[in-house]
Amino acid sequence: MKEIILAILVGGSFGFVLHKVGATNPNKIVGFLRLTDLHLAKAILFAIGFSSLLLFILMALGVISPTHISVKASYMGVILGGAIFGIGFGLGGYCPGTTLVALGAGRKDSIFMILGGLVGAWAYVLVFGWLETNMSWLFDKIAGGKVSLAVTGNEAFPALIDGMPGVVVAGIVAVMFMGGAYLLPNKLRN
Amino acid sequence: MNSSWGWLKSGTILGLSFLLAVALVKPIGVSTQYVIADCFIFCKLKPELAQEKVNDDGSKTYTSSNAYLNKSNGKYVKNTLNIASYGFVFVLAMFAGGFLSAKIGGPKVESDEKWIPQVWRDNMGSSWMKRMLGAFASGFFILFGARLAGGCTSGHMMSGMMQTSLSGYIFAAGVFAIAVPVAIIVFKK
């Protein structure tokens, strides 16, 4: 029961905020990708840097447990999958999460987006066995697989830069993201 | 279109919402739940896709006839057979959060935007059918790609880069290398 309440609380607030900041609006996503309206890009860069900085500070202080960390594997399919994702992202202006939030907010074209998503996800489920056998290079690990740049304190996920405290490495990266958000102009193209 | 928050305030609140997730439970992830929804539907038709076995010691083993669903000790099967758990309720709550946001203070979706966003209308015209096919194709690519990559914008990009995961940076590189030219070519204005 506790996990259901947490899911409602955290999922609900995430959806609320995604809509509030305009991330559910395909006009804004397309403006971001066409580089003609970078307001959302600035917000997202800042969000990543800011949350990262707080996360590593709170872990260093012992407030957040490193057991909550979950680093995904790096392999060739992450890059290729990202590129395939990019085709759909550029064409439709939604991602898997924002389209659900957008539907809640009243964007009904999301229904078809979600249906396409269910078919696309199932297509992958069906071809996975074939890909694993015939295109196994897709699953070749990069730099050891489940790795982060900064030391997280969770031993399941080795750090690429392990000579320095995690909060320092993550802090430098976070400042780059937040500085990038500040320096990025509102548009790069007309 | 009338979001009143500037980028700094938007970014701060958005960042706090990812942090809340990792502080309380675990990093946010959405695209897996499309597989769970699919499995929930298809395992009704083909029960061997999602099997639960109770072992002698009372623990449960989850298996599937499908290689993908069988991965990671059948975690997809487990989450399908126990669908009222964290991950799936999370995405339903996201939907509800969007609904609530549009009602109280968030940007209103104008009636002419509900089926076809303005940028699509300006470039592709007002054909309802064309937008629906475009949205369906877009959804197909996004989820196929996200499953190959093992995550999407939320899991890889936001939560991943927040944790300084290498996978987050390489996923973002793959996405933007393609999404930016696609958007520039498809949407001329």
Instruction: Assign an overall shape of chain B.
Output: globular
Q: Tally the helices of chain A: what do you get?
A: 7
Strand order of the largest sheet of chain B: 1-2
Helix-strand topology string of chain B: HHEEHHHHHH
Task: Describe this protein's structure.
The complex is a heterodimer of chains A (190) and B (189). With 190 residues, chain A is an all-alpha fold. Chain A has 7 helices and no strands. Chain A has helices spanning 2-20, 26-33, 39-60, 76-92, 96-105, 110-134, 166-183. The mean pLDDT of chain A is 96. In chain B, a hairpin with a 5-residue loop joins strand 1 (51-54) and strand 2 (60-63). The model of chain B has no long low-confidence stretch (mean pLDDT 94). Chain B contains 8 helices and 2 strands, in the order ααββαααααα. Chain B has helices at residues 7-24, 32-45, 71-81, 86-103, 118-124, 128-149, 153-162, 166-186, and strands spanning 51-54, 60-63. With 189 residues, chain B is mostly helical. Chains A and B meet through helix 1, helix 2, helix 3, helix 4 and helix 5 of A and helix 1, helix 2, helix 4, helix 5 and helix 6 of B.
Index terms:
heterodimer, A: 190 residues, mainly alpha, 0% strand, globular, B: mainly alpha, 2 strands
What is the fold's blueprint, element by element?
The complex is a heterodimer of chains A (190) and B (189).
Chain A (H helix, E strand, L loop, with lengths): L1 H19 L5 H8 L5 H22 L15 H17 L3 H10 L4 H25 L31 H18 L7
Helix pairs in contact in A: 1-5, 3-7, 5-6
Chain B lengths: L6 H18 L7 H14 L5 E4 L5 E4 L7 H11 L4 H18 L14 H7 L3 H22 L3 H10 L3 H21 L3
Antiparallel strand pairs in B: 1-2
Helix pairs in contact in B: 2-3, 7-8
In a nutshell, what does this entry contain?
The complex is a heterodimer of chains A (190) and B (189). Chain A has helices at 2-20, 26-33, 39-60, 76-92, 96-105, 110-134, 166-183.
